[in-house]
């Protein structure tokens, strides 16, 4: 296994994603979102100036896969020229774009949450296994609202890179059980249409615990703002 950045996106509240609409339509939406994210990974370099100066697409191995009601994204450098912080940010950007893609699809009818972790992992042969993936999944499942953020394993490495990022911002992450964890969250680039989709999906009834997650999610939307 080699060091890599991994992100897992899963429905808010750990809802059984297949209960949120027609399973075939949900499967198609997941596959389409994963395919679109994979395509964007090829086009992304150069769009963001700092990354465009530092990373070429041929220097990274990218994996995006819908797995068991989740979407898993990973980025691994193919040589040691780049600080791991750059790879973490690249993974976070891809995850943010995938989040926005899922947000504007009619199914699933819930918001998603996600965490980016950093650690050992294996992408060979189409496998997405290792501690980085397990860490990302565990942190995503603890997130109490529609946040996409850096798990402690990624935050520690990212902070050592001294990157002046416009992609990630300081944010308190609400966790299930009532705790909050200071970290960095992805600044999603939501336009008015995407923000409206965010509000609509946040308003879906989910019970008492869901009301808390809804409140956290809407506060996060205010933190994100709306791109004109």
Structural features, described:
The structure is a single chain. The chain is an alpha+beta fold and 228 residues long. The protein has a single domain, classed as Alpha-Beta Plaits (2-Layer Sandwich). It contains seven helices and seven strands, in the order βααββαβαβαββαα. Strands 2-3-1-4-5 form a five-stranded mixed sheet. A hairpin with a 2-residue loop joins β2 and β3. It is globular, with a radius of gyration of 16 Å. About 5% of the residues have low confidence.
- The share of residues in extended strands comes to 15-25%
Q: Tell me, what's the shape? A: globular
Nearest-integer average pLDDT? 82
Q: What does the main sheet amount to?
A: 5 strands, mixed
Helix content, binned percent: 40-55%
Topology:
Blueprint: E1 2-11, H1 23-44, H2 49-54, E2 60-67, E3 70-77, H3 84-103, E4 112-121, H4 131-142, E5 148-150, H5 152-159, E6 168-174, E7 180-186, H6 192-202, H7 207-224
Parallel strand pairs: 4-5
Antiparallel strand pairs: 1-3, 1-4, 2-3, 6-7
Helix pairs in contact: 1-3, 3-5, 6-7
Provide keyphrases for this structure.
228 residues; alpha+beta; Alpha-Beta Plaits; 5-stranded mixed sheet; 7 helices; 23% strand
Summarize the structure.
With 228 residues, this protein is an alpha+beta fold. Helices cover 43% and strands 23% of the residues.
């Amino acid at each position: 296994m080699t060091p890599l950045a991994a992100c897992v996106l899963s429905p808010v509240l750990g809802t059984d994603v297949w209960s949120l609409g027609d399973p075939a339509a949900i499967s198609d939406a997941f596959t389409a979102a994963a395919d679109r994210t994979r395509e964007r990974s090829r086009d992304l370099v150069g769009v963001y100036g700092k990354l465009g100066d530092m990373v070429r697409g041929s220097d990274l191995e990218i994996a995006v896969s819908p797995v068991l009601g989740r979407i898993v994204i990973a980025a691994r450098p193919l040589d040691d020229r780049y600080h791991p912080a750059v790879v973490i940010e690249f993974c976070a950007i891809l995850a943010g774009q995938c989040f926005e893609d899922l947000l504007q699809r009619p199914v699933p009818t819930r918001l998603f949450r996600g965490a980016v972790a950093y650690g050992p992992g294996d992408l060979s042969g189409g496998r997405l296994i290792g501690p980085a993936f397990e860490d990302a999944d565990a942190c995503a499942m603890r997130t109490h609202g529609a946040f996409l953020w850096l798990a402690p394993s990624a935050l520690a490495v990212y902070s050592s890179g001294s990157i002046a990022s416009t992609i990630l911002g300081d944010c308190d992450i609400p966790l299930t059980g009532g705790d909050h964890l200071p970290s960095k969250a992805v600044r999603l680039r939501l336009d008015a249409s995407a923000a409206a989709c965010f509000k609509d999906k946040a308003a879906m009834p989910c019970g008492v615990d869901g009301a808390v997650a809804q409140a956290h999610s809407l506060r996060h939307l205010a933190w994100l703002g709306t791109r004109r």
